[in-house]
Design brief:
Chains A, B: Pfam families: Aminotran_4. The structure is a homodimer of 367-residue chains. The first copy, chain A, folds into 2 domains: 164 residues, Aminotransferase class 4, branched-chain amino acid transferase, N-terminal domain (D-amino Acid Aminotransferase, Chain A, domain 1); 166 residues, D-amino Acid Aminotransferase, Chain A, domain 2. In chain A, 23% of the residues lie in helices and 31% in strands.
């Protein structure tokens, strides 16, 4: 594989956005990373950082028709001292290759993807915002680019990384949300693509989300597709419950995403000697625990929110209030600790963060 | 909705391909149809036929990330007299709106989509090939085009129709295929997107297809995702079995595609007074019927192949041969009659075909 990253700097840098109006995922930085895959050219080749710009594709490009795509999401944080930190980026690229395998997309060397990412963030390091709660959202993704309408794995792909400065997820403080338990629609099932980060899982979830929002819920609580009894995820996050002093989260069963935040939270809880267990969790168990006053906390976990406390569960016509609709003690502690580690404010006993410095293996061209 | 179709003709027509080397889905005609959707511009607008060309999209375009896409597939056929016939195109656009509903994509007026299609085919009518078995494959599709990384229904879409002259599916005569019963991977499940024609269903199927091909099978026979007992589809086709004189096909259960060819075959069989029933069909029943010598025919149905006879079923370590590996009498009669109706050679008692004539409501510009 060609691992020499060519860098072409933009001549016209964009104006940086007002830090108070960042929002999520609408503003992009000055550069992007691209690498192409062609079987007949020996695989992945021509890695390059170029000015952020539109891409041009034939209408018969497979990605428009058969959804053979994967993506990842992670963030870069600016510390008080101005250092740029990444949080466990190697986990994202490890998962990307698992997604690639499920989607029949050729794998990419993980350490090279990490180098490409660090080089890109370094080029656009002025774009990492520094206000409380802000960060640079990083979106690596792969699309299939063969121009062919047959249903088969594409022979051509494009791997890209784009960067978007994002605002604080909790601008007005952490307010627990109401989520609706979904009984009709299914996100994924064992043997499907639920463990992969691929577009089809997200498009399949939109309809249920629309229904939930109409019922005043901000997210959907997904049940398993087979028995419609066991908890899977909440929206596009993993989910945890504190039941009678113990933290439980659905075990990885082939249809649940192996979340980086989920994994980090399990490690943190173990580090604190708080009992945490990965196992099947049924809706029936939650209802019983709530009835017995033992459903003490509930929260979603993911890159965007880090920890998203659940204040109410809507189950059929019943509303199950959790912890008086307030964020729980452990949820708060997990949020503070994880965001603290991510931004360099809290000691990192796990070696989770890695700093973005200067890149060594690149040649640079100004045009 | 703006229903005036602007036509911009190409100045440089491509050379028509050699009819013997058409293949499938790699060659495209001179023009394409485009229409865009923007909430703030009042919905679907600006329908136009323009020279076939690449499209330019931002890397943050939702279609690359969250798979909110739908598509259709149908064919135009040239009769001996040079007329151009479409086969039940209204069924495709009816289904497209059902797919749109599941994927949270705004619906499109069905009669307008049909008019757009007929206008486009008329503009490129010289591209409809006339050799035996050839046709013009038509691919209407919609992609989400909002430039936003949030997971929510897009506010912008593009509807396109592209055309591809395709060769005969059965160049060397109809040879029954071996298909493998899939036990690990799942195509879709009730509550998922299996009844919609959306990219995610097809990307999810690639892995199983790879495994099946390695076992010498040309397609996968999908079982239901819940009990892994009941037959769903074969590859990306519907499936029929003749058991003890009766034709059975899996009933539409929410995870099976409502195929136009499937529907036409059921109507044809009823017209011929051949018993046909839509119901659950278990793998166990097929094995028993085969054991008793009563599994008489099996065939997939879809737009590409029309009828694809199954000669062997690979089930665990067993090979179940069907009808001595030869095409069955009813499979052959269905193939001959359907392709006969489609190409104007056989009387059409159902009013299934409609002719492409001159379009009336368009204004034409040469550039």
């Amino acid at each position: 594989m060609d691992t020499q990253i060519t860098i072409i700097h933009t001549r016209t840098k964009k104006q940086k956005p007002d830090p108070d109006s960042l929002g999520f995922g609408r503003i992009f930085t000055d550069h992007m990373f691209i690498m192409d895959y062609d079987e007949e050219l020996g695989g992945w080749h021509d890695p390059r950082i170029i000015p952020y710009q539109p891409i041009t594709l034939d209408p018969s490009c497979m990605t428009f028709h058969y959804g053979q795509t994967v993506f990842e999401g992670l963030k870069a944080y600016r510390t008080k001292e101005g250092r740029i930190l990444l949080f466990r980026p190697e986990k994202n690229f490890e998962r990307m290759n698992k997604s690639n395998d499920r989607l029949c997309i050729p794998s990419i060397d993980e350490s090279f993807m990490l180098e490409a990412l660090k080089t890109l963030v370094e080029v656009d390091r002025d774009w990492v915002p520094d206000a409380e709660g802000t960060s640079l959202y990083i979106r690596p993704f792969i699309i299939s680019t063969e121009t062919y309408l047959g249903v088969s794995p594409s022979k051509h792909y494009r791997f890209m990384i784009i960067l978007s400065p994002v605002g604080a997820y909790y601008k007005d403080g952490i307010n627990p949300v109401r989520i609706g338990v979904e009984k009709e629609f299914v996100r994924s099932v064992k043997g499907g693509t639920g463990m992969a980060k691929t577009g089809g899982n997200y498009s399949a979830s939109l309809k249920a989300q629309e229904v939930a929002e109409a019922l005043g819920c901000s997210q959907v609580l997904w049940l398993d597709g087979i028995e419609k009894k066991y908890i899977e995820e909440v929206g596009s996050m993993n989910v945890f419950f504190k039941i009678n002093g113990e933290i439980v989260t659905p075990e990885l069963n082939g249809s649940i995403l192996d979340g980086v935040t989920r994994n980090s939270i399990i490690q943190l809880l173990k580090h604190w000697d708080i009992p945490v267990i990965e196992r099947r969790v049924s809706m029936e168990e939650l209802i019983q625990a709530h009835h017995d006053g033992k459903l003490e906390e509930a929260f979603g976990t993911g890159t965007a929110a880090v920890v998203s406390p659940v204040g109410e569960l809507l189950w059929e016509d019943n509303v199950l209030e959790i912890n008086g609709g307030q964020i729980g003690e452990i949820s708060q502690k997990l949020y503070d600790t994880l965001t603290g580690i991510q931004t360099g404010k809290v000691e990192d006993p796990f070696n989770w963060v890695s700093e973005v410095g200067t890149s060594s293996s690149s040649k640079s061209h100004a045009i």
